[in-house]
Design a protein that fits this description.
The complex is a heterodimer. By secondary structure, chain A is an alpha+beta fold. Chain A folds into 2 domains: 227 residues, Rossmann fold, CATH 3.40.50; 126 residues, OB fold (Dihydrolipoamide Acetyltransferase, E2P) (Beta Barrel). Chain A contains 11 helices and 21 strands. A 6-stranded mixed sheet of chain A has the order 6-7-8-3-9-10, sandwiched between helices. A 6-stranded antiparallel sheet of chain A has the order 13-12-11-14-20-21. In chain A, α2 packs across α3. By secondary structure, chain B is mostly helical. Chain B has one domain: Orthogonal Bundle (MetI-like fold), CATH 1.10.3720. A two-stranded antiparallel ribbon of chain B has the order 1-2. In chain B, a hairpin with a 2-residue loop joins β1 and β2. In chain B, α3 packs across α7. The chains are: A alpha+beta, B mainly alpha. Chain B: It is a multi-pass membrane protein. Chain B: Keywords: Membrane, Transmembrane, Transmembrane helix, Transport.
């Protein structure tokens, strides 16, 4: 079982929602669509489900062309950000509804409903109630159980946890890989959060303005983004960038010159580059002798318990440092920040990756 | 924490209290006052609940009540399903949605007595468009014009009822449409998508998604239409004046005849209070029952 999109595109009202995209999801794989709001995640899912028809391109399911096929004839289940359940039915009837529509016998329905409910940890008294009497988390469990019970080959989860509060989100997210493994279906999970993609594992497709910028195993996309856009999407806070040029073993940034004798840099030809590094690699204390130092102005700090976000301005570039502990740096104060060259990615001026950070190749 | 007691705040609500007293409490109490006393050449004497007993036993009141209930349930049975059906056909967004809504709202903007006058002329058997069309059609089907017009709401109770009901449906279905439409608009697109993925039929979408989601606004629609139609006065009064005979004399029309026509104040006051309590009771029962259904 596999799902293949072959140069699929979607244009609505002259506006390109999905640029021609070719992507293949292997049988029984967990796939994350990662991208900011309006990057085309939902549109892509609707094309996969068959809710919308692509403007061009074909959709193949197990090698068979299903492009024009009606959604109800495909083996698809979908869960939404909103908790979508039939309001007047009990939770039990909600979970049973897809099976009833397909005319299963009641004994079989009962067995399947109870199995799905048990997997989603819905107890007997919750099964007897109506969805709106339950908490948000339980309503979404009901919707997930409804999707599971169909035993569809393709399960689409469109930001299913976005409307839940933090605690419930963690709880339910931990269960998703489990139900995925038991179902054997292709899972496609849309999210805006990089760390959600990393927790779910599997494969990740990064989306930016209707384009899949990279698709591959989640950790490798994270470690070796093929371009600056992917790196930006797959970093939270977004990756910090600085334009510079390399001349010999020096990096020239505006009029400042930094000595940068480091193996990954030395392999690069002289010329203009964009250096990128993630917020957690930007430090406010020097870590080692080889660290690159930048003179910045502090524009704000956000303290989030065990971590602090320090916002700094380097020339015209806005950077964020994610540092451990509570740091309340004075606003508008000058501060030198540091980056280990091993954590620096180099991109060509057009955004393509010139060299990955040394740590990525090591780990 | 110490609460500061400041009784001067009461002065702030005084204007509202006076206003409510002037336009609700005092008139209501006047009616209550009349309903338990007999007036004889300016002299008042207490008669207890005599007026209430008389009114309830009065055949004329009972007939008006039966007509009233018949009318209200007829128009509810037509307007609610019709309103839902129309709301379902209005597009969810776009220019046509606005056009439809404006067209729908038009009848609601017309003053009630104008509606009555319009239909009075519209349905006249000889010169009204509706009456003339119906009578011409009846002629084609073999009705003999010499025996008088086939459709004449000024003479025939059935024709009068038909006209009054049609007028109310024309005037007020829009309200149900607008409320049902508001209920439909609150349904997230994801519900329709989910139903499509499940392969649910059009009927299942209506029965399990749209109807439950419209429940609250429909409850309000039914309540408003019940109360308004139960109190209907202006339109039938202008259209038929309660006739022919007493065939379209609903409670309000009867009440006005008793109070102003016959100056029977005690009787009329008792009628008003019975009338008021009936509306209150039915509305309360209906509301409680539908809302309980949602919680259980």
């Amino acid at each position: 079982m596999s799902l293949t999109l072959d140069t699929v595109s979607k244009v609505m009202g002259g506006e390109v929602h999905i640029a021609p995209t070719t992507i293949e999801f292997a049988s029984g794989s967990m796939n994350v669509l990662l991208g900011p709001t309006l990057s085309g995640k939902t549109t892509l899912m609707r094309l996969m489900a068959g809710l919308d028809q692509p403007t061009s391109g074909r959709v193949f399911w197990q090698g068979r062309d299903v492009t024009g096929m009606r959604v109800q004839d495909r083996q698809v289940a979908m869960v939404y950000q909103q908790f979508v359940n039939y309001p007047s039915m009990t939770v039990y009837e909600n979970i049973a509804s897809p099976l009833r529509l397909r005319g299963f016998a009641s004994a079989e329905i009962d067995a399947k409903v109870r199995a799905a409910a048990a997997m989603m940890k819905l107890n007997e008294s919750q099964l007897g109630r109506r969805p709106l009497e339950l908490s948000g988390g339980q309503q979404q469990r009901c919707a997930l159980a409804r999707a599971l019970v169909k035993e569809a080959g393709l399960v689409l989860l469109d930001e299913p946890l976005a409307n839940l509060d933090y605690k419930l989100r963690e709880e339910l997210r931990a269960e998703i890989p489990k139900i995925f493994e038991e179902s054997g279906a292709i899972f496609v999970y849309a999210t805006t959060e990089p760390h959600e993609a990393l927790l779910l594992g599997g494969n990740t497709a990064c989306l930016w303005e209707g384009r899949v910028t990279q698709f591959g195993a989640t950790p490798s996309v994270y470690r070796r983004p093929t371009d600056a856009t992917t790196a930006r999407v797959f970093s939270d806070p977004p990756m910090n960038f600085v334009a510079l040029s390399k001349a010999g073993d020096e990096l020239v940034i505006d009029d400042a010159r930094l000595a940068a004798d480091f193996p990954t840099f030395n392999r690069l030809a002289d010329g203009r580059y964009i250096a990128g590094f993630r917020a957690n690699h930007l430090r406010i204390e020097r870590g080692s002798e080889r660290d690159l130092a930048f003179h910045c102005r502090v524009t704000g700090t956000e303290i989030g318990g065990s971590e602090s976000f320090v916002h700094v301005l380097h020339g015209a570039d806005r950077w964020v440092a994610l540092v451990h502990g509570v740091h309340d740096l004075p606003h508008q104060s000058d501060r030198t920040v540091f980056v280990d060259p091993a954590h620096v990615y180099m991109f060509a001026p057009d955004g393509a990756l010139a060299c990955a950070a040394a740590y990525a190749d090591a780990g | 924490m110490n609460k500061t007691l400041n009784h001067r705040a009461w002065w702030m609500v005084l204007p509202v209290l006076i206003l409510v007293a002037m336009n609700a409490v005092i008139p209501l109490m006047t009616v209550v006052n009349f309903s338990v006393q007999e007036e004889f050449y300016g002299e008042f004497s207490f008669v207890g609940l005599q007026w209430f007993a008389d009114t309830l036993a009065d055949e004329r009141f009972q007939n008006a009540l039966i007509r009233q209930l018949g009318f209200t349930f007829t128009i509810l049975a037509i307007e609610i399903p019709l309103g839902i059906a129309i709301a379902l056909t209005i597009p969810r967004s776009g220019v046509w949605a606005s056009v439809c809504l404006v067209l729908m709202a038009l009848p609601l903007l017309i003053p009630w007595n104008v509606v009555g006058a319009m239909w009075n002329i519209y349905a006249l058997p000889d010169i009204g468009f509706l009456g003339y069309t119906l009578n011409s059609a009846a002629g084609l089907f073999g009705h003999d014009p010499a025996s008088g017009p086939w459709f004449d709401y000024t003479q025939e109770p059935v024709a009068a009822w038909f006209t009054v009901v049609l007028m109310d449906v024309w005037h007020w279905t829009s309200l149900v449409v607008l409320l049902a439409y508001a209920g439909l608009q609150s349904i997230d697109n994801a519900y329709y998508q989910a139903a499509r993925i499940d392969g649910a039929s059009r009927w299942a979408v209506f029965r399990y998604i749209q109807l439950p989601k419209m429940k609250h606004t429909l409850t309000i629609a039914v309540l408003l239409r019940f109360m308004d139609s139960f109190m209907i006065y202006t339109e039938p009064s202008v259209l038929t004046g309660g006739g022919p005979g007493n065939s379209t004399t609903f409670l309000s029309i009867d009440l006005v005849k008793v109070a102003l026509g016959q100056q029977d104040l005690g009787n009329a006051a008792a009628m008003s209070i019975i009338y008021f309590l009936m509306i209150l009771l039915v509305s309360w029962l209906f509301y409680t029952l539908t809302m309980q259904g949602g919680k259980k």
